[in-house]
Design brief:
Number of strands: 9
Radius of gyration: 21 Å
Strand content: 25-35%
Order of helices and strands: HHEEEEEEEEHEH
Number of helices: 4
Shape: globular
Distance between the termini: 77 Å
Strand order of the largest sheet: 1-2-3-4-5-6-7-8
């Protein structure tokens, strides 16, 4: 009798684990990149419209931008800038590499020194999940849904486009209510603040 109970409980645990794993895998499968990215069009300056809060941007109070430049070896130079509470500008320089050359939509980024680039843990997933037809906005995240950014070529994004993006990412399993909007001002004002600091 005891043995039957043990077998039954073990079977139920196994079944529950299998169902949970299958369900979770199905959800992860909803995170898909766009079919193709022209990295030359993608290059340039982007304004951060909103993001999931994260520890490496906790010092940023606004004016967040990301600038991408294509290197001759097909890697991408990344320069992230933001305004800190003390009025100074924080600059982080990194490097991105293409993981999926078929689509150019899956990349990995690192901000650690180049001599640490051989360590897998210094590279983070950078998946382009959505992209405006004219490369006027972009949505970037990762397959585990730990990170999410909404970027735009302009400091502001129209409400209709923003709401459409929220609907799309929610279908992928992201939580739109976790997004925090990024305060942006004009480049002229940012330049003035940089001069004063």
């Amino acid at each position: 009798m005891y043995m039957k109970k043990v077998i039954l409980i073990s079977s139920l645990v196994f079944l529950f684990t299998a169902i949970s794993a299958f369900g979770q895998k199905g959800v992860e499968g909803n995170v898909k990149t766009i079919e193709s990215v022209d990295l030359n069009k993608y290059a340039g300056k982007w304004f951060e419209i909103a993001r999931y809060p994260n520890k490496f941007q906790k010092q940023c109070v606004g004016e967040v931008t990301a600038t991408y430049n294509i290197n001759s070896n097909k890697t991408i130079q990344v320069v992230n800038e933001c305004l800190k509470e003390d009025g100074k500008v924080d600059i982080a320089k990194g490097k991105a590499k293409i993981v999926d050359e078929k689509t150019n939509a899956k990349l990995e980024v690192r901000f650690a020194p180049s001599w640490l680039s051989w360590l897998p843990q210094v590279w983070g997933d950078y998946w382009i999940l959505d992209l405006g037809e004219n490369y006027d906005y972009a949505v970037v995240g990762d397959p585990n849904r730990d990170y999410l950014w909404i970027l735009s070529r302009e400091p502001e994004l129209d409400t209709a486009t923003y709401e459409n993006i929220l609907n799309k990412v929610e279908m992928m399993g992201f939580k739109p209510d976790k997004l925090v909007k990024t305060p942006q001002k004009t480049e002229v004002k940012l330049g003035e603040m940089m001069t004063k600091s």
